[in-house]
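Dear H.,

Thanks for agreeing to be a second pair of eyes. The structure we're designing against is below in token form, covering all 347 positions.
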């Protein structure tokens, strides 16, 4: 394990963007992954396998077909794309442009928003955790958006000037979409529309912006290591570069999500896997980088409230379908890793 360090200017230097800007020819060893973790499928070998679902006409007669498509995608992949989702192009373009401006700032200016020890929000290089064995080839900023009282507003960038207003607009619009999707997913499980949202208690929304500069040796590293999202539902806005990969056979084959102009990627996290009593997959995914184009993703995470008791939805448990998960408190299970890290960094 690498030692725990603070996200200070000294420790963030050089960030991956600074490395890319200076034209490094080799990847520093801290970014080089173990042989078995390195990507074998390039960032632009796009797959046609991951479902693309048109959700136009949600309230009308198309709804039952959309629900059926979503149910299939959730049980087979745990990841799919949606088009005609109602989040406007002008808003996604604005947030993208402003996030790009943020990452383009000198490291000194970004470090103003650096993650503080023990708090897993704000700006970081590689990972918000600082005790990872290998670093990821990315810079990121994590912004809490909902409930309003949970906002880390001191770390919401003040530059560009319109950033905060755009983030507010984007997170509101995405939260509306997330709620619609949770309704469709609940119905696809044969439950009432509000079932999953209610089961999350007062759900939390955070936005993570990932910036992946070009990398001289993309075969040796990853933008984000293989993982499943710890929360409930994730909606991701990617650009036209490509790099998000998912596997449904435990890493044997990797499918690269094809960038589609105007589409959003939806993936399920561990909490929906548990709430669905194992019927739906938590998407197993990672991001790869490349040597020609900088990539950026803007990711909305919807998680249960920290004190929420997570369990399979009662309507999905009966004599023939015993509960596969004992109830647990969300933060005890999934913030445990963060806690352990926090104890180390406070030591
Ligand atoms: O950038 C991507 O495509 C993936 C990002 C991701 O998986 C995450 O932030 O959890
Ligand atoms: Fe993820």
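And this is the sequence the design step returned. I haven't edited it by hand at all.
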């Amino acid at each position: 394990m690498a030692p725990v360090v603070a996200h200070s200017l000294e420790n963030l230097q050089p960030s991956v963007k600074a490395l890319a800007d200076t034209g490094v020819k080799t990847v520093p060893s801290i970014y080089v992954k173990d042989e078995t973790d390195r990507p074998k499928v390039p960032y632009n070998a796009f797959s046609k396998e991951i479902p693309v679902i048109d959700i136009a006409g949600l309230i009308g007669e198309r709804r039952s077909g959309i629900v059926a498509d979503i149910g299939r995608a959730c049980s087979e992949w745990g990841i799919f794309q949606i088009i005609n989702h109602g989040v406007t192009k002008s808003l996604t373009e604005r947030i993208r442009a402003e996030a790009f401006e943020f990452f383009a700032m000198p490291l000194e200016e970004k470090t103003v928003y650096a993650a503080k020890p023990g708090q897993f929000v704000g700006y970081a290089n590689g990972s918000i955790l600082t005790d990872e064995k290998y670093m990821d080839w990315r810079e990121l900023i994590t912004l809490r958006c909902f409930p309003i009282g949970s906002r880390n507003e001191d770390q919401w960038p003040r530059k560009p000037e319109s950033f905060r207003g755009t983030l507010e607009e984007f997170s509101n619009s995405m939260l509306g979409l997330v709620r619609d999707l949770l309704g469709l997913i609940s119905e696809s499980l044969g439950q009432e529309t509000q079932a999953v949202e209610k089961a999350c208690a007062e759900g939390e929304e955070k936005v993570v912006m990932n910036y992946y500069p070009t990398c001289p040796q993309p075969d040796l590293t990853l933008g984000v290591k293989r993982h499943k999202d710890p929360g409930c539902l994730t909606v991701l806005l990617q650009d036209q570069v490509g790099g998000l990969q998912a596997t449904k056979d435990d890493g044997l084959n990797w499918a690269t999500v094809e960038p589609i102009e105007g589409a959003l990627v939806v993936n399920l996290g561990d909490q929906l896997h548990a709430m669905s009593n194992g019927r739906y997959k938590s998407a197993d995914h990672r991001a790869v980088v490349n040597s020609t184009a900088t990539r950026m993703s803007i990711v909305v995470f919807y998680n249960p409230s920290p004190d929420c008791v997570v369990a399979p939805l009662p309507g999905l448990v009966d004599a023939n379908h015993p509960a596969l998960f004992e109830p647990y408190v969300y933060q005890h299970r999934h913030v445990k890793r963060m806690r352990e890290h926090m104890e180390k960094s406070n030591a």
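Two observations from my side: The mean pLDDT is 93. The radius of gyration is 20 Å.

Warmly,
E.
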